[in-house]
């Protein structure tokens, strides 16, 4: 379903195993029917060749779903600071320096001094060099949002994370459990914090302290049991508790001997109890007065790391999410198949076994292209091919390029009709062929290629014959007769009802599933990088088979 | 995080040894709670064992994070954009075409109706979401980690089994604790029992939890999906002047409609629409009082609000335009979805009761004790409970309903008449009984429930010294029989608390046993030796490795068995 055709996708063989997973009712696709690239599940198993890795020991393609990962380094994508993994656990998964994203447009924010209104006429340089600086704010370079809009200013231009975590939107200091405790210590008679000042962090901290205290105080014999589903009534403690429920002793009876049987529920703000605020008329008024403009959009809300904000002035700057570099292992043999360099700035890999150097690259192009080639100067632009007309034979050239140092034998299989409602006819003119090894590059240049050129002048593709051939590549021809997209022309198959719903998205895209099987001989215990002629006797046969999808083009609506 | 009760530095196993002093002065000498520490295990346990993942899976959102945090690190949803192939960069291309075809189904992870669900696709979607959450947001590698799974207890077993399959096979989780979201909401509210009203996407679910156990669960389809559809109908009418037709492309995209719903949806305070709501004679809960005050103090702005208009810039129609929608109409949509006051109560089907009726009927069917305990512990969770004013409105509707009808499951003209005649007498008699804390709404039943307790206490406090002591002791009395709404941090936070405090979950599933037996291996919850299970899950650190060969019974808890 990629926008520009033609393209090639490869299905990782690992998805076969998950297909028959839940329920076991789903059949193995290889046994019964051809792989359907239009099925919703196939979106999850198809990858461009560049995304795939290869395990040399298992001789298997490995996709992002079937590798195990290990983190190498963590870093902030904005300041490229490398974060030690111990900090990650204590400080969370976001940058704790001064890297923030704009809550409105997710552009990067910059710290700057707030321009005093009286200095409006001065040159910009003059207030930037002001040694006293301050107060500072965060500025978005893209949408001109500043943190002064939510009344947050900073004293220092550095350590924004620490300063910001102490202020709520609107400039009020944020209450923490420690503040509350200090306050209570100084002034024990003070009433607990009003509920509207208790935010999620404080409530959580209160609750946690409360539960910890209760668990340690309550009777250890039934500790923990309350959450269990099958509570037994065998223990004496449970029986007394049930009795007390019905005699009222639990409430106002005599002093209980020893610790309480069960932990009590939270009773006040300090225990983490918070009465819900049912009166939201103030917010309703704000919504109705402000209208669409004061509300935060769904995307903005989902970017917020804390509890969702409703209004735009409740949005907070977003600290950058850290990233990690990961090494990848084969899940079955535990060999590393990809390992990046630990340095943050380096984009190189120490080990990287990409599938491109183990399985043939398949490219497809029309035999008689209709789109004019794009001049180099306009390169990012892609010229789309004209849509394919139904019931008209089209020829496509499929090229297989062999990256291995051995000859490979390729066998292709493709269903005669593509799966789906609109099934087009597909014929592979040459389903079996051999591709030469990836030998010295100069061979190609030195070889006399007159022969191949002459073939092109022929009338057209011939059944059973290779179309073109080079040093390590072979092209064959695929004949396609696209189906008509008209609903009323759908053929009736057996007794099944025809699905006459209107054309769905992507259904006009002609995709051909093709099963590729390659066979080759190579040395045992492959040492691919070593010299090829170590021991001629120990060569063994190998094979690899997988489905791939060739996106041919769009069928025209008529 | 499971290795210690210390709030910080829990990742260091040393810290867990010292966590005991944090506990405050105990009431009496007793055996200190044992912290089962990884330190005593084999050295190989010093691995990723110490983070415990909490995963909450709803029909729209997946939340994932570490136990001990107060909010999930990743809250992800799965739209059609997230279901494309790898290497499809259409999202980043300018002027991407607007997706007018995908509807609710493409945005949901699963549905309750399994006939419409492709379990394989659910597996793939969840797999991709969790991989994204773990890799991008939680930044963890793929070493095995124990996980807590927070799910609605109504999730069908095939879905549960798919999720467990994914976690055990795809993520090598050694052990999964199953926690029900209603119970966890109660935990996150700091209480033991309560009525959890989960206004989610697919359904509004009312669950009464008593002593951490789910007693009853009733559902209504009046949830977010319904609301979104109603709003779409309104917008469709405004845009095209026609009623919505079933087939064909949408007028505006689903995403845009949802955006409008989340931004502008609000709910009217009850006084303005329902004139029959009488002035309540006595109100005890403070929050309801404040609603009343507001209504009285600003009647003028209320009027002006009714006429104001929201201008909504629409981008998914061609050409983009701005439409004007009166706020009143939006509130009508909300009213029709959740209350539907225009229709008689008897006209509703079992699955589409309006929310206030659902709550009332739920409370009505509860045993009296449970009802008395649940009434002052009402918790709202779920996305739709964030609609401005809806919580207050629901509570107001329920209270007025209780006031009108009491707790009698009979309705009709004659009953209504006779009730009205009795009402005044009864109330007078209740007012006379000083000890009763019951509201007028509870009438006789509540009175009865309070009677035995007063008798019991009388006999106990016959001793005058004891009575004196009792008078000076801080009264810890359970609030009963009146409405009060509590704020909960939500099921995810509750599960995070529970897991960090190492409280055994309702059901734990071991990887080896699951891979051997699958969902069919689960026994009935009452066939199981609770103590044995508890011992295993308490010593979870050691259990992982030791258990493999043992044949133990395990259950799927509230999710039943095959």
Structural descriptors:
heterodimer; A: 558 residues; Immunoglobulin-like; 6-stranded antiparallel beta sheet; 5-stranded antiparallel beta sheet; 17% helix; 22% strand; B: 562 residues; alpha/beta; Nucleotidyltransferase, domain 5; 6-stranded mixed beta sheet; 5-stranded mixed beta sheet; Actin (chain B); Ro-7 (chain B); ATPase_NBD (chain B); cytoskeleton (chain A); coiled coil (chain A)
Give, in spatial order, the strands making up the sheet with the most strands of chain A: 2-1-22-21-16-18
Task: Assign a percent range to the helix content of chain A.
Answer: 10-25%
Helix tally of chain B? Answer: 21
Task: Give the biggest beta sheet of chain A.
Answer: 6 strands, antiparallel
Poorly predicted ranges of chain A (pLDDT <50, ≥5 residues)? 18-31, 122-129, 221-232, 249-259
The CATH superfamily of the domain at 51-93 and 113-189 and 490-559 in chain B is: ATPase, nucleotide binding domain
Biased composition (Polar residues) (chain B): 450-460
Biased composition (Acidic residues) (chain B): 290-301
Family (chain B): Belongs to the actin family.
Pfam families (chain B): Actin
Helix and strand topology:
The complex is a heterodimer of chains A (558) and B (562).
Chain A: E1 7-11, H1 15-19, E2 46-47, E3 53-55, E4 60-62, E5 68-75, E6 82-83, H2 85-91, E7 100-101, E8 109-113, H3 124-128, E9 136-140, H4 160-164, H5 177-186, H6 200-217, H7 236-247, H8 249-252, H9 281-290, H10 298-303, E10 318-319, E11 323-329, E12 336-340, E13 349-352, E14 361-366, E15 394-401, E16 408-413, E17 425-428, E18 432-435, H11 441-446, H12 450-456, E19 468-469, E20 473-481, E21 509-523, E22 539-554
Antiparallel strand pairs in A: 1-2, 1-22, 3-4, 5-6, 5-11, 7-10, 8-9, 11-12, 12-13, 14-15, 15-20, 16-18, 16-21, 17-20, 19-20, 21-22
Chain B: H1 13-17, E1 53-57, E2 61-66, E3 74-77, H2 104-107, H3 119-137, E4 147-151, H4 157-170, E5 175-180, H5 181-188, E6 194-199, E7 204-210, E8 213-220, H6 224-240, H7 254-264, H8 270-273, H9 286-297, H10 299-307, E9 309-314, E10 321-326, H11 327-338, H12 355-365, H13 368-374, E11 378-381, H14 390-405, H15 413-432, H16 443-460, H17 464-472, E12 485-486, H18 491-500, E13 507-510, H19 511-517, H20 530-538, H21 540-546
Parallel strand pairs in B: 1-4, 4-5, 6-11, 11-12
Antiparallel strand pairs in B: 1-2, 2-3, 5-13, 6-7, 7-8, 9-10
Helix pairs in contact in B: 3-4, 5-18, 6-7, 6-11, 12-14
């Amino acid at each position: 379903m990629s926008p520009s055709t033609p393209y090639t996708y490869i299905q990782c063989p690992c998805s076969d195993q998950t297909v028959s997973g839940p329920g076991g009712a789903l059949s193995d696709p290889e046994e019964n029917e051809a792989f359907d690239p239009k099925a919703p599940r196939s979106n999850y198993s198809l990858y461009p060749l560049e995304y795939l890795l290869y395990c040399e020991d298992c001789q298997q393609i490995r996709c992002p779903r079937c590798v195990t990962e290990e983190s190498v380094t963590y870093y902030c994508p904005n300041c490229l600071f490398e974060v030690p993994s111990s900090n990650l656990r204590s400080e969370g998964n976001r940058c704790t320096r001064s890297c923030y994203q704009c809550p409105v447009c997710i552009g990067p924010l910059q710290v700057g001094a707030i321009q005093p209104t009286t200095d409006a006429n001065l040159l910009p340089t003059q207030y930037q060099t002001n040694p006293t600086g301050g107060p500072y704010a965060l500025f978005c370079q893209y949408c001109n949002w500043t943190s002064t809009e939510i009344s947050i200013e900073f004293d220092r231009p550095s350590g924004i994370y620490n300063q910001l975590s102490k202020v709520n939107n609107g400039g009020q200091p944020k209450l923490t459990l420690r503040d509350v405790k200090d306050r209570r210590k100084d002034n024990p008679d003070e009433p607990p914090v009003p509920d509207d000042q208790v935010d999620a962090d404080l409530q959580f901290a209160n609750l946690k302290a409360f539960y910890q205290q209760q668990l340690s105080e309550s009777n250890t014999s039934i500790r923990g049991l309350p959450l269990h589903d099958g509570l037994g009534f065998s223990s004496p403690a449970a029986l007394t508790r049930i009795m007390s429920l019905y005699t009222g002793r639990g409430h106002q009876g005599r002093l209980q001997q020893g610790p309480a049987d069960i932990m009590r529920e939270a009773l006040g703000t300090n225990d983490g109890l918070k009465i819900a605020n049912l009166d939201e008329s103030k917010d309703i008024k704000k919504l109705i007065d402000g209208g669409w403009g004061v509300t935060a959009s769904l995307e903005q809300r989902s970017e917020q790391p804390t509890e969702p904000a409703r209004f735009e002035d409740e949005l907070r700057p977003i600290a950058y999410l850290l990233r990690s570099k990961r090494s990848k292992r084969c899940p079955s043999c535990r060999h590393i198949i990809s390992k990046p360099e630990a340095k943050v700035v380096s984009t190189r890999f120490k080990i990287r076994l990409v599938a491109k150097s183990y399985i043939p690259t398949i490219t497809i192009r029309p035999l008689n292209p209709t789109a004019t080639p794009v001049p180099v100067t306009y390169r990012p632009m892609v010229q789309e091919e004209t849509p394919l007309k139904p019931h008209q034979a089209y020829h496509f050239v499929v090229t297989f390029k062999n990256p291995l140092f051995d000859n490979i034998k390729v066998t292709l299989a493709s269903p005669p009709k593509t799966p789906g409602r609109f099934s087009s006819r597909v014929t592979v003119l040459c389903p079996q062929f051999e591709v030469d090894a990836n030998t010295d590059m100069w061979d190609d240049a030195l070889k006399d290629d007159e022969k191949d050129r002459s073939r092109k002048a022929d009338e057209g593709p011939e059944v059973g014959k290779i179309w073109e051939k080079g040093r390590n590549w072979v092209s064959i021809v695929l004949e396609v007769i696209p189906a008509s997209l008209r609903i009323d022309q759908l053929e009736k198959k057996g007794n099944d009802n025809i699905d006459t719903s209107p054309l769905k998205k992507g259904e006009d895209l002609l995709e051909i599933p093709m099963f590729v099987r390659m066979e080759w001989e190579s040395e045992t215990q492959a040492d691919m990088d070593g010299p090829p002629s170590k021991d001629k006797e120990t060569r063994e046969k190998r094979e690899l088979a997988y489905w791939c999808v060739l996106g041919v083009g769009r069928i025209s609506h008529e | 995080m499971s290795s210690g009760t210390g709030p910080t530095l829990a990742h260091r196993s040393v810290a867990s040894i010292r966590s005991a002093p944090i506990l405050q002065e105990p009431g009496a000498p007793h055996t200190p709670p044992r912290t089962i520490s990884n330190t005593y295990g084999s050295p190989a346990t010093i691995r990723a064992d110490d983070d415990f993942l909490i995963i909450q899976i709803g029909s729209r959102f997946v939340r994932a994070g570490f136990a001990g945090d107060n909010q999930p690190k990743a809250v992800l949803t799965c739209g059609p954009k997230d279901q494309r192939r790898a290497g499809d960069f259409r999202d980043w291309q300018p002027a991407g075409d607007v997706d007018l075809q995908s509807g609710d189904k493409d945005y949901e992870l699963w549905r309750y109706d399994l006939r419409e669900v492709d379990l394989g696709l659910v597996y793939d979607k969840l797999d991709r979401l969790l991989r994204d959450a773990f890799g991008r947001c939680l930044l963890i590698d793929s070493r095995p980690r124990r996980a807590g799974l927070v799910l609605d207890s109504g999730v069908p077993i095939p879905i549960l089994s798919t999720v467990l399959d994914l976690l055990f096979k795809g993520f090598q989780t050694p052990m999964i604790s199953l926690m029900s979201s209603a119970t966890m909401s109660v935990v996150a509210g700091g209480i033991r029992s309560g009525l959890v009203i989960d206004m989610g996407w697919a359904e509004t679910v009312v669950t009464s939890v008593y002593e951490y156990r789910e007693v009853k669960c009733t559902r209504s389809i009046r949830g977010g999906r319904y609301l979104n559809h109603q709003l779409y109908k309104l917008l469709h009418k405004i845009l095209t002047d026609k009623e919505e037709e079933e087939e064909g492309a949408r007028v505006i995209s689903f995403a845009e409609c949802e955006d409008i719903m989340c931004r502008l949806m609000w709910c009217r305070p009850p006084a303005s629409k329902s004139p029959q709501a009488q002035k309540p004679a006595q109100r005890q809960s403070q929050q309801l009082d404040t609603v009343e005050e507001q209504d009285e103090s600003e009647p003028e702005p209320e009027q002006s609000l009714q006429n104001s208009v929201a201008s909504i810039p629409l981008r998914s129609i061609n050409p983009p335009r701005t439409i004007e929608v009166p706020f009143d109409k939006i509130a009508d949509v909300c009213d029709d979805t959740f209350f539907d006051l225009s229709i008689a109560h008897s006209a509703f089907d079992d699955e589409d009761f309006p929310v206030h009726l659902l709550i009332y009927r739920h409370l009505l069917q509860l045993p009296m004790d449970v009802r008395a305990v649940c009434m002052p512990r009402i918790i709202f969770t779920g996305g739709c409970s964030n609609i401005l004013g809806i919580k207050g409105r629901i509570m107001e509707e329920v209270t007025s309903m209780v006031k009108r009808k009491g707790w009698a499951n009979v309705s009709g003209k004659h009953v209504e008449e006779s009730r009205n005649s009795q009402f005044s007498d009864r109330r007078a008699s209740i007012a006379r009984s000083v000890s009763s804390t019951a509201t007028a709404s509870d009438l006789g039943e509540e009175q009865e429930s309070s009677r035995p307790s007063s008798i019991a206490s009388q006999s106990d406090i016959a001793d005058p010294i004891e009575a004196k002591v009792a008078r000076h002791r801080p009264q810890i009395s359970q609030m009963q029989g009146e409405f009060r709404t509590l704020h909960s941090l939500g099921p995810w936070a509750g599960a995070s608390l529970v897991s960090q405090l190492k409280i055994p979950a309702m059901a734990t599933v071991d990887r080896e046993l699951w891979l051997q037996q699958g969902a069919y291996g689960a026994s009935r919850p009452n066939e199981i030796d609770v103590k044995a299970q508890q011992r295993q899950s308490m010593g979870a650190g050691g259990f992982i490795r030791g258990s493999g060969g043992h044949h133990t019974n395990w259950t799927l808890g509230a999710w039943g068995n095959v």
